[in-house]
Write a structure and sequence with these properties.
The protein has about 325 residues and is of the alpha/beta class. About 40% of the residues lie in helices and about 15% in strands. The longest helix is centred in the N-terminal third of the chain and has 22 residues.
Length: about 325
Amino acid sequence: MTKILVTGSLGQIGSELVPTLRKKYGNENVIATDIRPNAPTFICEEGPYEILDVLNNSRFEELIKEYEIDTVFHLAGLLSATGERFPQKAWDLNINSLLSVLEFGRKYQFKRIFWPSSIAAFGPTTPKDNTPNETILQPNTMYGVTKVTGELLLEYYWQKFGLDTRCMRLPGIISSETPCGGGTTDYAVEIFYEAIEHNHYTCFVKPETKLPMMYMPDLLKSITMLMDADVAKLEHHVFNITAMSFTAEELVQEIQKHRPNFTVEYKPDFRQTIADSWPRSIDDSSARKEWGWKHDFGLTEMTKDMLEKLINSKKIFDQN
């Protein structure tokens, strides 16, 4: 029986991935962990929840042995905008914790390790359109530097020790369930909340800013597909992944189809420079070829579903 440990379980991805994994593998077989003591009931009461600072190796190893862990989804980390404010902390958390996971994987012979990379691994010298899986990786953010380094570590442990490591370069992730976490693509989530609650949003990137994006249901689907894939059929261990690309203005126009009174003003800040260094669209044909990846949500479908879920959840007050 697979025994899974998830780090960063209370983050944007973890808080939705943990229930998905528990539904698939059983509540008791998915151990959620995070540094925060106060976990929501759907995380801490429906299965094991443990407080874990991923830089505390003794505590980390204690949990691995206690629960007989054989698979880790390592999601803990600092995102791009926060990483620029605290570069040393970003390196320490993003890289040193990953190295610990890989060493534990080698020591305890893990079945598989999943770690998310990002489009931040690309940089100003990377081709901007239809960016291929193998390309120039010269990021100009500390977050991006940690992602490139992490990718290389995953490849090294695969080649050197035969450790089954799997990774995807995530685009911007849009979710109706969890708040933003300090990333450059946060505007694509914030805008929905502000559209419903205030009918106005101040956007921190320019209207023509175009970036790859993915809706959370597609992300959850892609992660489980990749981890279920037959390793013998994988030519890569790091994959580009995407579902759609759109400009900030195109997103506004799509929201306005549902909320005609919604207005936006654009006041770019330091995150604009980060966004400008990333691709406008990426080629994920390797993922589609090697493990059958196919997205379900484009801009139109995502926008409609996102607005409906936010309004129906009663998380925010609809002033329209």
